[in-house]
Design goal:
This protein is α+β, with helices and mostly antiparallel strands. The chain has helices spanning 13-21, 50-54, 63-69, 80-95, 121-139, 151-158, 174-178, 191-199, 205-209, 213-220, 222-232, 261-281, 314-331, and strands at 5-10, 30-35, 43-48, 74-77, 100-103, 108-112, 143-148, 166-168, 247-258, 284-295, 300-311, 336-344, 347-348. It has a five-stranded mixed beta sheet. A hairpin with a 7-residue loop joins strand 2 (30-35) and strand 3. The structure holds a DNA duplex.
DNA sequence: GCGGAGATGGACC
DNA sequence: CTAACGGGTCCATCTCCGC
C-alpha cells in the first residue's frame, strides 16, 4: 500500500489563541513573549501573528528588539495553561482521525492515514479539508496541513503554504517539489548544517542529491550523512507512533548573574518542585539527574548523576540537584545566568499506565 | 570492542 | 544602545571506564 502521512501545524498558535480570546486584537500586530526575571521587557519572542511578522518580528528574537521593530504592537506574556488546554482539545480530536497519531510539540501532529483513505490521495485531501473545517468550527483557529508519502515530506508540505494552507505532494511530485528548496527546509538541517553544506557548494536539495554519499558521511558522520543522502531524495520511513518522553527539564533565568549558592538555591528548589509535580502527574520515576548551568557567556554546562535504580522522590531529586550545583561551582569559576534541572532515564512508577497502553 | 555514564552541541518548536 | 537573547525536548557524538 502506498503510504500517506498527514502533518498538521497550527498557524501562529499562541498569538492566534490570544486573538480569539480578545477579538479587539484582530488586525493588530500581536507578539507573545516569554519574559524573564530580568525585568522591563527582557525576554524572547515566542510567537508573533502575521501583522507583527510583516514588520520583521519573528520567534526567538529578543523582546526589546521586537519592540523596536513594532512599537505599536500588543505585547503579551505567554499563558501556557490556556494554550495547553486548547492543544488538548485539538489533539484529542485528531487522535481519532488516522490509523496512528503522533504529537510533535504543542501545536503540531502527524497522522498515518494510509488505511483510512486506502492510499488514495484524493481521499486524503478531502480528509485534510474536513480536519481544517472542524478545527476552525470548534476552536476558531486555522492550521496548515501537508499530505505526502512520509513524515519528512508531510512536514515540509505543511510549511509550504501558510497560513491556512493545504499542500499535497504525491509520489510523482516529490523530486520537483524538493529539488529547488534550500537545504535548510529539510527537517534536521539547521543553521550549522546548512552553512557546512554551503561551503561544499550545496545550496538546494537538488544540489544535495548530486553530492557524493562517501563525502557526506566523512563530513557529517555515519548517521547524519546517510540521513542527508536519503532525505534529499525524499526518502523517510520513520513511523507515526506515540513516543514516551525520554527526559523532562525545567530551566529559568536568574535575576542577575551570580555564583553565590544562596542566590541560586531558591530558584533551583522551585524548579525541582515544579519538575517533580510534572513527573508525578505523568507517572514517571527517574534514574538520572542533571544540573544545568548557562553561564554569563551563554555557554551551557551540565553535570549529571545516575542512580542504581529509579526513584520518584522529590527529596532525592533536590538533594542531587544541590549536590551537582555545588560540584559545578567548585569546579568552575563562572557566573551563572540561567539554571536548570533535568531528569532522564525515565520509568513508569508502579501502577501507572503507559501512554502506549491507551488504545488508538 | 561494547555498554553505560557523563558532557556537549545542534536542531526544532 | 555599536545587540541581546526563553524555555523545553530530542538526538548524535565524543570520551572515559569497566568488562
Amino acid at each position: 500500500m502506498r503510504r500517506i502521512v498527514l502533518h498538521l501545524d497550527m498557524d501562529y498558535f499562541y498569538a492566534a489563541i490570544e486573538e480569539r480570546e480578545n477579538p479587539e486584537l484582530k488586525g493588530r500586530p500581536v507578539v507573545v513573549c516569554v519574559y524573564s526575571a530580568r525585568g522591563e521587557g527582557k525576554g524572547a519572542v515566542s510567537t508573533a501573528n502575521y501583522e507583527a511578522r510583516k514588520r520583521g518580528v519573528s520567534s526567538g528574537m529578543s523582546c526589546p528588539r521586537a519592540k523596536k521593530l513594532a512599537p505599536e504592537a500588543v505585547f503579551l506574556p505567554v499563558n501556557f495553561e490556556l494554550y495547553e488546554g486548547v492543544s488538548e482539545n485539538i489533539m484529542g480530536y485528531l487522535r481519532g482521525q488516522g490509523n496512528a497519531f503522533e504529537q510533535g510539540g504543542i501545536d503540531e501532529a502527524f497522522l498515518e492515514v494510509t488505511g483510512r483513505v486506502k492510499s488514495d490521495y484524493k481521499k486524503a485531501e478531502e480528509l485534510a479539508r474536513e480536519i481544517k473545517k472542524v478545527i476552525r468550527l470548534r476552536e476558531g483557529l486555522s492550521c496548515s496541513i501537508g499530505v505526502a508519502p512520509n513524515k519528512l515530506l508531510a512536514k515540509i508540505a505543511s510549511g509550504y503554504r501558510k497560513p491556512d494552507g493545504l499542500t499535497v505532494v504525491e509520489p510523482s511530485m516529490v523530486q520537483g517539489f524538493l529539488r529547488p528548496m534550500k537545504t535548510s527546509k529539510l527537517w534536521g538541517v539547521g543553521k550549522k548544517t546548512a552553512e557546512e553544506l554551503r561551503e561544499m557548494g550545496i545550496i538546494t536539495v537538488g544540489d544535495l542529491t548530486e553530492a557524493d554519499p562517501i563525502t557526506l558521511v566523512e563530513k557529517f558522520g555515519k548517521a547524519k550523512g546517510a540521513w542527508l543522502y536519503s532525505a534529499a531524495r525524499g526518502l523517510d520511513d520513520d513511523k507515526v507512533e506515540v513516543r514516551e518522553a525520554a527526559q523532562l527539564s525545567r530551566i529559568t533565568t536568574l535575576p542577575r548573574n551570580t555564583r553565590k549558592p544562596e542566590e541560586i538555591e531558591g530558584a533551583l528548589k522551585e524548579l525541582v518542585r515544579d519538575l517533580h509535580t510534572a513527573l508525578k502527574e505523568q507517572g514517571f520515576s527517574f534514574r538520572t539527574v542533571s544540573f544545568i548551568a548557562v553561564t554569563a557567556a551563554l555557554k551551557t554546562h551540565t553535570k549529571s548523576r545516575t542512580l542504581s535504580s529509579t526513584t520518584d522522590e522529590e527529596t532525592v531529586l533536590l538533594g542531587l540537584a544541590l549536590e551537582l550545583m555545588e560540584a559545578f561551582l567548585k569546579e568552575r569559576d563562572l557566573d551563572i545566568r540561567r539554571v536548570g534541572v533535568r531528569v532522564s532515564g525515565l520509568g513508569r512508577a508502579a501502577g501507572q499506565k503507559s501512554l502506549l497502553d491507551y488504545g488508538r
